[in-house]
Amino acid sequence: MFRRYDFSVRKLLKDGENVLEVSLLSPVFYSSERRKAHSSYSVPPECPPDVQKGECHVNFIRKEQSSFSWDWGPSFPTMGIWKDVRLDAFDVLHLIQLSSLPLYNYSSTQWRLQVELLVDAVQTTSCQVELSLSELDSKQTIQNLFLQGRLKYNFTLHINKSSKVKRWWPSGHGGQPFYHFTVKGFQDKVLFLSSESKVYFRTVELIQEPVMESPGLSFYFRINEKSLFLKGSNWIPADSFQDRVNSAVLRNLLQSAVDANMNALRVWGGGVYEQDLFYNLCDELGIMVWQDFMFACAMYPTEDDFIQTVREEVIQQVQRLKSHPSIIVWSGNNENEAALATNWFNIPASQKPTYIKDYVKLYVNNIRKIVQEEDQSRPFLVSSPTNGAESEQEGWVAANPYDPHFGDVHFYNYNMDCWDWRTFPRTRFASEYGFQSWPSFSTLEPVSIPEDWSYNSNFTSHRQHHESGNQQMLQQAALHFNLPNSTVPLKRFTDTLYITQVMQAQCVKTQTEFYRRSRSEIIAGKGHTLGALYWQLNDIWQAPSWSSIEFGGKWKMLHYFAQDFFASVLPVGFEDDDTLFIYAISDLNHDLKLRAVVNVYSWSDLDSICTLTSDQLLVSGGSAAAIFKQPVTSLLAGCGGCTRLTCLLSFHLENNHGIQQGPTNHHFLCSPKDAQGLQRPNITAKVQEDKSGFMVILHSDSVAPFVWLDVGHIQGRFSVNGFLIVSRNKTVHFDAWQPTSVAELSRSLSVTTLMDVY
């Protein structure tokens, strides 16, 4: 599935009509037969867990691994041809692939463009090759001999030192300028080869070096010599049937990522190498891509024919993708180092060396070697999670690939209280973490019938592919919220969908804020976190999952929260030993003078009881610093007899002119289920339209947490959602993705708050 096949048909074609016949074999049957043929030892896992309702032995076929089922998706093992079929005819030569890699010499401060042409020539041909970046006044002509057959040719275009090169930057750090690059081939002044592509200039380094006051090594990315915090999520296939993933689907999802202040996505190794448009859009939008190779959660065979097709796959994909500035790192697989190290598959100790040998053969001796030959511009990691350089020192499989002192970490725990930041690992880089939720009713309704609309129905069980997932969501929610108890079955179901989204949003918010405030400090030898990619961005079908965007593009509450917790400037509040801390976090390039402003509210009153202001602090660009610190007891004592149960905190950052910087955040002093004075807010909503678009004018009688606006099947998104109301009036804008009207929106609009579900 992951490679192109080319066949010479020159001697087979005849005048007139020719028929190309393709025979297809069941991928399930093929995988089973390959497994039977591998009789010397097993290559686990044999089958997915029963809860996934999937097919077996997917690791024996080079195909989308999640197509045989995953813990968030169905088992639809597709078969067929999924990319174009074409007949190429040429008289002299054919350009199969053009790649260009901008490389920067730090000592001479000069750029050069490494150009690679994959050419198929009918016969040996001498010609002039012209390379040109006219906007940078850089041009070169080379006399070259193209030999008969299919071969790769390398050229170097040195960029004129007097030309100022504009660099590509990730979203939030600068623009994404590009240059037009042309390649032309002439023979006796006759043009017979011409190709044009975009070239973006940027550098990337993965820094793994000793850290002051900490064992281990750092793990962070430097783009254009600037250290960046990677903020984002993990990307899975956008549909079980790839031909349905069109430009509208990709644009919507990737724009939604940028709109939530993300600057990075990890293309996960159990899906597909995405189509060209995906990477073109990431280039344009400034989304950094962590690109896995397509191996996930399994051991893999290493027979010669398997290795050979993998080698061809890797060569083709790296040649296709390496010109994209958005891709900043290659990674050999998803979780296979961890699976070996922590013995997911119960491999006897005596047999472990066999599997380590296979692991090194596939990912190190083949994939890594090819990538380093094909692409000198990017780092390569053998796995994720990994201890990086430390894993290499330990023979590529570390004793503990989850060690927070090294590399990246995947972390999931559904049993501990997600509001307690102490349960999270203070890692260098968090590349996977998350919690499940259900999608909204409007997403489920088209694929269900009324008898399905219960949390205990066969439908909700069938769509849940993660063991005990439905129970885990309610158990986590019940730690802080009263569970829905309506006697009307449909309302109870939709309220439960809502409460799972509240739980997920609050859990991932707490964890992400912990990672962002850990960027500048080392505590007990851990910290300097410079990446937070939660699991997962998107969905492959209408079902419960870890996603923040539902199948079809609708934003869950989590995605609205991400807009805030990934903001460039952000206040984060938390408690340690009954002391309230507020950190000011800045991803900006420049320093800011900031103060924290804390408003204390009673759950029963919309008027602020008191306001506290910190001293002004100089917050460096690219840092996190404590800006407010006060014991909770003294804070409450000075605020009109507030207690933990009766009051809550809202806070924001201001500059020295009193102008708010970043979003407003909040801190609950108790679980909402224990809050005293919280009442039904009697919110009224009026939809209006002006030149800027649609808006919803809200009026509330009291404090209301997790206010959720929903317009059913009308596609679009609100400016904010799932928010805390601590004022009588609030205006929310709605960006419609389809033609609609005030009347239609008014009919479809529903407003849900925490007190409406019990």
UniProtKB/TrEMBL annotation:
One of its GO terms (cellular component) is lysosome. Pathway: Glycan metabolism; N-glycan degradation. Residues 579-674 form the Mannosidase Ig/CBM-like domain. GO terms for biological process: carbohydrate metabolic process; glycoprotein catabolic process. It is found in: Lysosome. Residues 1-83 form the Beta-mannosidase-like galactose-binding domain. Pfam families: Glyco_hydro_2_C, Glyco_hydro_2_N2, Ig_mannosidase, Mannosidase_ig. Its EC number is 3.2.1.25. Keywords: Disulfide bond, Glycoprotein, Glycosidase, Hydrolase, Lysosome, Signal. The keyword Disulfide bond applies. GO terms for molecular function: beta-mannosidase activity. Residues 678-756 form the Beta-mannosidase Ig-fold domain. The keyword Hydrolase applies. Residues 221-380 form the Glycoside hydrolase family 2 catalytic domain. It catalyses: Hydrolysis of terminal, non-reducing beta-D-mannose residues in beta-D-mannosides. Its main location: other. Belongs to the glycosyl hydrolase 2 family. Monomer. Exoglycosidase that cleaves the single beta-linked mannose residue from the non-reducing end of all N-linked glycoprotein oligosaccharides. This is Beta-mannosidase.
